[in-house]
């Protein structure tokens, strides 16, 4: 386990996604339904940033072709993407949000 502090919880608005670089990995941090989730910031269908997509009810929607991904599992819920996006463990410690990209 190697959790790294990425931002403050108060930096993340509900139903939003933000791009961060954590230990050289592009990470999309999303806040939805009171939870903070981290995924690789790259759609599994083409190389575009998921952090530019819309977050809604525990999912992020890719802005390019509209696949939605479950923020908890990284699995696509609708086409055209068929492969899951890598997810990373998140820990919220007070107002600090920590992510482990080395798991
Ligand atoms: S690039 Fe994301 S769905 Fe096509």
Q: Which strands sit side by side, in order, in the main sheet?
A: 2-3-4-8
CATH topology: Rieske Iron-sulfur Protein
Residue fraction in strands: 35-45%
Question: Count of helical segments?
Answer: 0
- Report the major sheet: 4 strands, antiparallel
Distance N to C terminus: 6 Å
Q: Based on CA inertia axes, which overall geometry fits? A: globular
Q: Helices and strands, in N-to-C order?
A: EEEEEEEEEE
Radius of gyration equals 12 Å
Hetero groups bound? FE2/S2 (inorganic) cluster
Low-confidence spans: none
Known CATH architecture:
3-layer Sandwich
- Classified by CATH, the class is Mainly Beta
**Domain module tally:** 1
Strands, count: 10
Helicity level: under 10%
Structural class: mainly beta
Which short descriptors sum up this protein?
single chain; 103 residues; mainly beta; Rieske Iron-sulfur Protein; three-stranded antiparallel sheet; globular; binds FE2/S2 (inorganic) cluster
Give the secondary structure arrangement, pairings included.
Blueprint: E1 4-8, E2 16-22, E3 25-32, E4 35-40, E5 54-56, E6 59-61, E7 68-70, E8 87-88, E9 90-93, E10 96-99
Antiparallel strand pairs: 1-10, 2-3, 3-4, 4-8, 5-6, 6-7, 9-10
This protein binds FE2/S2 (inorganic) cluster (FES).
FE2/S2 (inorganic) cluster (FES) binds next to loops.
Question: What would your notes on this structure say?
Answer:
The structure is a single chain. By secondary structure, the chain is mainly β. The protein has one domain: Rieske [2Fe-2S] iron-sulphur domain (Rieske Iron-sulfur Protein, 3-layer Sandwich), CATH 2.102.10. It is 0% helix and 44% strand. The chain contains no helices and ten strands. The strands form three sheets. Strands 2-3-4-8 form a four-stranded antiparallel beta sheet, with no helix packed on it. It has a three-stranded antiparallel beta sheet with strand order 1-10-9, with no helix packed on it. The chain has a three-stranded antiparallel beta sheet with strand order 5-6-7, with no helix packed on it. The mean pLDDT is 96. The structure holds FE2/S2 (inorganic) cluster (FES). The site of FE2/S2 (inorganic) cluster (FES) has 10 residues, from loops.
């Amino acid at each position: 386990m190697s959790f790294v502090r990425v931002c403050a919880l108060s930096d993340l608005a509900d139903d939003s996604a933000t791009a961060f670089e954590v230990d050289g990995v592009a990470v999309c941090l999303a806040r939805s339904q009171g939870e903070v989730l981290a995924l690789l910031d790259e759609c599994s269908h083409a190389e575009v940033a998921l952090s530019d997509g819309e977050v809604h009810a525990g999912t992020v929607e890719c802005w390019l072709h509209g696949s939605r991904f479950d923020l908890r599992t990284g699995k696509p819920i609708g086409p055209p993407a068929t492969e899951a996006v890598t997810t990373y463990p998140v820990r919220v410690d007070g107002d600090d949000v920590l992510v482990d990209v080395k798991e």
